[in-house]
Amino acid sequence: MSEIKKKYESVHYTDYLQLKKVLDAQHLRSPEHGEAAHDEMLFIIIHQVYELWFKEVIHDLSSIMEMFRNDNVDENNIGTAVHRLNRITEILQVLVKQIDVLETITPLDFLDFRNYLFPASGFQSFQFRKVEVALGLKEKYRETYNNIPYATVFSEQESKELHDLENADSMLQLIEKWLERTPFLHRNDFLFLEAYKKAVDNMLDKERQAIDATDYLTAAEKQMRMNMLGSTDTFFASVLDENKHNEMLNKGALKLSYKATLGALFINLYRDEPILQMPFQLLSKLVDIDELLTTWRYRHAQMVLRIIGRKIGTGGSSGFDYLLNTAIKHHIFFDLHNISTLMIPRSELPILPDHLKKQLSFYFTTGNK
What we know:
This protein is 61% helix and 1% strand. It contains 19 helices and two strands. The protein has a two-stranded antiparallel ribbon. A hairpin with a 2-residue loop joins strand 1 (186-187) and strand 2.
């Protein structure tokens, strides 16, 4: 058979998707140990589907990370990265929605086969751990599971792969390096940080005047709002004072470097400029992923509470409490969420010099005067 003919030979749907393997991969334990539990089939299929989606997330995420490994990121790849990050967010929405299907298993239905699952646990999902680590969840930031390192439940080869992945640049670190290279922050004719500080001071002064002028608040209420409003010495301090920022980094309260944070802030503030629209979408998609993972963790915890209450998990964890704590603690792109704290109204944005504004736009010249 010629290579061309072989290349375009027909393939059957069943063979291409290897459906015989896939559809023969649901082996219920309940019939082997007693009476068959009807809902065990759904329980297996749901988790197999999760693993297939994790495989696709890893596939897309790995390709995006490869685009950002070089010091000079090809800006033509940003659109592709945004597209694939968007796909990941769509997948994560499906993962959240699948919990609704899983919740059709009632507590009594689950008890029909739960005893046959020990000590299997979702904590043993190697692919999900790869997703977390690749995105940037380091072991030191993890909620402890039974006071043991999370990788101990995996094989030696899997543990090594997770270790190597953790010691390589994560998506968070790659984005940090990319943001640190953001141009336009330090120019002789436009010092972004100085202009931003003046804009923040101006914004806060206007808000103080508005609070003071209102007739609808008592003196005590006005003082409370003034205190809540803060100043450039409060939540703005981390971006206006590099030393303060580095202190928070050392405490683990922040993860992105000072320069990367300034880059993210600049992109968010001037997102309407044509050249910055795609970088803004990129950062927004990372925030979406972080939010959806948190939503999934929370929904997972609530599902566990609904089905097994406060029983110990099949893997030996504290069940609901452990899962809820991961939803609270396992934020990866928290610094990008925090940019919202630093935003100011468009009306207060420092005006860009004309030639800088032109550089941030798409323009051409004909070469004729």
